[in-house]
Amino acid sequence: PQMFSFNDLLCIFLAVMVTDVVLLDVFNTLGMPTSTTVSMVFELLGGTFILSLLKIATDETGLLGFADLLNTDKALSVILGIFLSVAVAFIFGTVVQWLSRLIFTFNYTSKLKWKIGLFGGIATTCILYFALLKGLKDSSFMTPEYNAWIKENTMYLVGGCFVVSTVLMQVFHWCKINVFKIVIFMGTFALALAFAGNDLVNFVGVPLAAYSAYQDFAANGAGQADTFMMSSLNESAKTPFIFLFLSGVVMVYALATSKKAQNVVKTSVDLSRQDEGEEMFGSSRVARSIVRGANNVNEFFSKYTPKPLVRWIDARFNKDEAILAQGAAFDLVRASINLVLSGLLIALGTSLKLPLSTTYVTFIVAMGSSLADRAWSRESAVFRITGVLNVIGGWFLTAGIAFSACALVTIAMYYGGAVVMALFVFVAVFILIKSNFSTKRKDETDYEEQLFKGIMNAKDKAECWGLLKKHVCATQQEMLDFVWKTYEDVVNGFVDEDLKTLRRAVKRIDAEKSRRKKLRQRELVGMRRIDKRISLEKNTWFHLASNSGEQMLYCLKRMSEPCKEHVDNNFNPLSRECIEEILPVKKKIVDYLMRSERIVEDRDYEHIDALLAEEEAYKQQLSEMRRAQEDRIQMDLSQGLKVSLVYLNLLQETQELLSDLRHYLRAFKRFQQ
After folding, report:
1. Residue 229, strand partner residues
2. Percentage of the chain surpassing pLDDT 90?
3. What is the pLDDT of residue 136?
4. 138-145 LR contacts (CB < 8 Å, sep 24+)
5. Is the pLDDT of residue 160 over 60?
6. How confident is the model over 110-146, as pLDDT tens digits?
7. Which residues touch 364 (CB under 8 Å, ≥6 apart)?
8. Distance, CA of 413 to CA of 8 (rounded, Å)
């Protein structure tokens, strides 16, 4: 810092804060865990790098180098510490959870005996040693005398803590108190303390450094912001307690109220949950290769492992005996390991003064423990691994974006001065407020999400069946709403040669297909949770309705793409005769689709048969229009062949759309009744 002026550092620090707020908000909106430490470190590197280039380029002596302006050794050690923590966390998470499950099994309540006291004693001792003795040794209230006494008596403190806590936990168990819940409570406290000691401190360090720089400039700068060098920042940071306290209050409030925070947590929990359910991510080639390789390795070791040992291990990992609380993703054993181990690893890194990524550690520990718990079955492993790779890829993306964006913002502030600084701050605040308000509106109207949560949490099969019918009804009503609006856009876009409308329709169809796939997976999970007798009776109608809905989307795609391509190529427009023919029919079919939507929304099964009878008249009219168009193609050579074929395809796909709607309504009625 002694090589930079107050104005230089102000540009860097402000650019870091503006970039970090916007970048993290984007990831939080997407529900993707990302590392605040990685973003901050690479933003500082990006801002410093661009100003270093500028200083080196304008240095008349030619003696300045990056080593003079940028602490490259420290930056490299920080980056290596961050990424090495991934491997350490995964290995520890996998090994510790595997050993814990081998000891306790999934039916852990019947196999505790003396083991639970020992487990609680070890967990308590580790938490007190790493989180308190190591984590708090540099706190403001810890005097040198206290630290010296603790260092001299560490072995006695650890040994005494282990004995007392083991006995105490065993007594709790005999008193019918759930020791795992006590460990989880302490683990939560330890993890919160570890986050505060690493993540929060790292983040508030940037504005506090700017505040310290301002205090030094105000006292000694004499108003020369471009020439007053910041040597004072070489000293150890002195953080006022009030800033840390207020930052902690804001963090606690955000954790308790932020929907975005809950979505980020949902991503991590879903990737590590014990049972089958909706998979948030698709399949990727890399994930498929990893699963295939892991299966080959597993078969190799299974072949040479003694069969009695394999059977004994399999008996200890019998997932059918899993004890899960209502709505829980995994049991208390894994929850204890995730919290305690994450907190310990973060506290250890903090004690070594490494700003490791708390996000990396907690997420990867959870992934390692879920792998050890056999939560990744062959049915879900490829989706879970794809999700993990997406999250890790997002971290690398965070690093690249943070470096580049902060460099650009820094140089813009450097040359733009106070006006550009104020503009960037305004933009960041505006984006943050707008994003939070849009998230609240989305959450308030997300009826399907609440229904699905109810299905997953329902213990009564009859209640689950009722919620599932509501979920199917809501999703199918939305699908029909999409169908008639998109059909109307396609026909109008083709008739009016509106390329923008047609492009939007094609994109919306692709997005809706992906959404329908996700919703169908959810409903299939729900079908597995209802009574088996009802499931066998309704399964056929559920799949028939879902398949018919997908076919309607394919009809829209097959009619929209040729229309878009035709208009995009500026081919001949549709003749006036055809336009006057198709518009009244379009109006009738849109009205028919809207009435079908209202019947599904109201679950008015009595009028479905009458609606189906009406559909035959529309199909007959479309058949006549097709024959007339075929005659025009043969007889009227002045009409363009390309536009005639597109129009003929539009009529044919409209007729097919009505046929699929017929199958859908019949199946929907039989499923809901």
Report:
1. 5
2. 8
3. 58
4. 140/241
5. yes
6. 767 778 888 888 888 887 776 666 555 555 556 677 7
7. 85, 86, 89, 90, 93
8. 9
Span 281-298, mean pLDDT?
Answer: 83
Sequence-distant (6+) residues with CB within 8 A of 139 are none
Q: What is the DSSP letter of 60?
A: S
Which pairs with CB-CB distance under 8 Å and at least 24 residues apart come from 585-592? 585/618, 585/621, 585/622, 585/625, 585/654, 586/487, 586/488, 586/491, 586/492, 588/618, 589/487, 589/618, 589/654, 589/657, 589/658, 590/484, 590/487, 590/488, 592/618, 592/658
Q: State which amino acid sits at residue 417.
A: G
pLDDT reported for residue 450: 75
Measured between alpha carbons, how far is 617 from 629 in angstroms, rounded to an integer?
A: 19
Q: What is the spatial distance between Cα 634 and Cα 452, in angstroms, rounded to a whole number?
A: 54
Which one-letter amino acid corresponds to residue 11? C
**Separation of alpha carbons 170 and 119, rounded Å:** 9
- CA–CA gap between residue 626 and residue 655 (Å, rounded): 10
Residue 278 backbone class (left: φ over 0; alpha: ψ -120 to 50; beta: rest): beta
> What is the reported pLDDT for 141?
58
The rounded distance, in Å, linking the Cα atoms of 396 and 381 is 23
Decide if 277 contacts 375 (C-beta within 8 A). Answer: no
Q: Take residue 120 and report the two structure tokens written for it.
A: 């609680």
Range of weakest confidence among 47-51, 223-227, 643-647:
223-227
Backbone torsions φ then ψ of 393, nearest 5 degrees: -60, -35
* Pair 38, 399: CB distance under 8 Å: yes
CA atoms of 213 and 6, how far apart (whole Å): 7
> How high is the pLDDT of residue 441?
46
* CA-to-CA dists, residue 245 to 196, 248, 249, 261, angstroms: 10, 5, 6, 21
509-526 burial: b if 16+ Cβ within 10 Å, else e:
beebeeebeebbebbbbb
pLDDT at position 138 is: 56
Q: Which of 336, 358, 332 is nearest to 345 (CA)?
A: 358
Its pTM stands at: 0.68
**What pLDDT is stored for residue 198 in this prediction?**
66
Average pLDDT, the chain: 82
Q: How far apart are CA 492 and CA 650, in angstroms?
A: 12
pLDDT, greater one: 416 or 232: 416
Which one-letter amino acid corresponds to residue 671?
A: F
* Residue the block writes with tokens 């994003």: 435
Buried b vs exposed e over 248-284: b needs ≥16 C-beta within 10 Å? eeebeeeeeeebbeebbeebbebbbbbbebbbbbeeb
CA 427 to chain centroid, in Å, comes to: 25
Does the structure show a pLDDT above 90 at 408? Answer: yes
Q: Are 5 and 54 in contact (CB under 8 A)?
A: no
Q: Is 434 exposed, middle or buried (0-12, 13-18, 19+ CB in 10 A)?
A: exposed
Q: Which residues are CB-neighbours of 13 under 8 A, at least 6 positions away?
A: 206, 207, 209, 210, 213
| CA–CA separation, 514 and 296 (whole Å) | 32
Compute the distance between CA of residue 360 and CA of residue 427 in angstroms, rounded to an integer: 29
Look-up: residue for tokens 């168009």? 629
Centre a 10 Å sphere on the Cβ of residue 288 and count the other Cβ atoms it contains. Answer: 14
- Tell me, what's the pLDDT at 555? 92
Q: Is there a contact between 545 and 668 (Cβ–Cβ < 8 Å)? A: yes
Q: Which of 653, 641, 625 is nearest to 491 (CA)?
A: 653
Give me the mean pLDDT over the 423-449 stretch. Answer: 70
First to last CA, the chain: 73
Please, are residues 409 and 15 in contact by the beta-carbon 8 Å criterion?
Answer: yes
